[in-house]
Amino acid sequence: MSEDPQSPPAESVRVSVVVPVFNPNEAFDELIASLDRQTLDRSQFEVLLCDDGSDEQTRERLAKVESTRPYVRVLYLPHSGWPGTPRNEGVAAARGRYVQFVDQDDWLFESALEALCDYADEHGSDVVVGKEVGIGRPLPRRIYRRDVPDAKLGEDPLLEMLTPHKMFRTAFLREKQVRFPDGKVRLEDHLFVMRAYFEASTISILGSVPCYAWVKRSGSASSSRIDPDSYFPHLEAVLDLVERYTEPGRLRDRLLRHWFRGKILKRVSGKRMVGYPAEYRTRLLDAVIPIVQRRFGPGVDAGLAFPQRIRAALLRADRRGDLVAFARFEKEMKCRVAVTSASWSRGGGLSLGLRVEITRDGQDALVFDDGTLTSLPVPMDGLPTGLLEAGRELRNDRIELVLAPADGEVRHLATASLRGRSTATLAVDPLRVFGPDDEAREARIVAKVRRAGWTFEVPLTSDAATLAGAGRSPLLAGRTCTPVAARGGAVELRRVWPGGRFKDLAGRAVRRMRSRARGR
Description:
Layout: E1 15-21, H1 27-36, E2 45-52, H2 56-67, E3 72-77, H3 84-93, E4 98-101, E5 107-108, H4 112-123, E6 127-135, E7 148-151, E8 167-169, H5 170-175, H6 188-199, E9 203-215, H7 228-245, H8 250-264, H9 270-275, H10 278-295, H11 298-301, H12 306-316, H13 320-332, E10 334-344, E11 350-360, E12 363-364, E13 368-369, E14 372-373, H14 391-394, E15 398-403, E16 411-417, E17 423-428, H15 430-433, E18 442-451, E19 454-461, H16 464-468, E20 481-485, E21 491-495, H17 501-519
Parallel strand pairs: 1-2, 1-4, 2-3, 6-9, 10-19
Antiparallel strand pairs: 4-8, 5-9, 6-8, 7-9, 10-11, 11-12, 11-17, 13-14, 15-16, 15-18, 18-19, 18-21, 20-21
């Protein structure tokens, strides 16, 4: 087949963007617009729209996109019903040094392709994990805390993001025959990405540059309940892959723990477990209990959090009634974080005294005697000794205040240890709550509590009188701010807008001087 004279010459193509397409909605226009905005010269990338047998209207739509953009090629394919085969066809047709996978409902930040290619070239990467940003969905943060030119499985948090939204060296995929499974295969992303991880000489994490916008759309497949009979054989295929590439020991246990925690234990916990219809719960446990008994040993359990270790032991012992009782205990726990005092510091911080209560039926839910949980209404006889000891987790108890806006980008405000205590004092800086380009007039504060391995996320609450005692915010707090108790007692920080710009500038200047002084 001759090369299109209007398309970029093959030798100049740095990256091929492979997009599996099937009857896309209007979100597809956002993706195309984001590709049009790329800072990478259009002669240096191509876009392969791999159409999985869409209808005639979609084919006309794709043809129009192709006719108006020399860097776009459309591959018209027979319908497979799943994105794996279109992606494989895209890799086979790619002319770029690298392949970047993008889904039809998502989009790329404008500097993504240029930054990813430059980073891969600099470090000789087979795989580059570019920073993903959740749009309408929360995403793990630890994986993107810093750039890691040579990341290692089991050491760096590579398993946090096993989506295929990454850049791969094309020759590497072909030489190692790393392919998506054809047909409808659950967890096909995990099979592909893990195989690439195991085969790669260099895996790099680019956490400092936003690259990929992963958009949550209503009715997405991830929100539907799985069918246990069809889902878990695919999970075992992933576990087989891990075992094929690793020897028994710490690395294998650490990797297996990821799927045990996220694909099994999470599904039999708390509100989720209690809410299953009885017939579905039976089918789920029939599927997972044999897997737990065969695949996950003591070495895997050792790295689990306290409640997960209890859940794992009950599963392995096939104690179904006790497992449901434990889930009900978790569901019935209630967490409340209340402000007990509020005052402004001269430096501009709002100091909040907090009390944390975790109750069940009006009583303390988590009572410990020398590190051992004594308030669990579930029999533990016949299970491993020490199962109710939570010393490690209790040492890590903490409270964090965050902003949790609707776009899913959680913003950290302050953290304090709760080790052995139910009270803490935290300082909130209004200039962290409201960024320099933020036009918001109010922000609601959320408390995240970690207690004995359980995590609770609840609104920070207060009565109006306690917050009123804080008085007027000082000059260095920036624009005048007032903490108030909104509906239901939820704590909000409200500020004057747009007045007070010079107070904001003064406060930020002082923060910069403090930061420079600490760095000396």
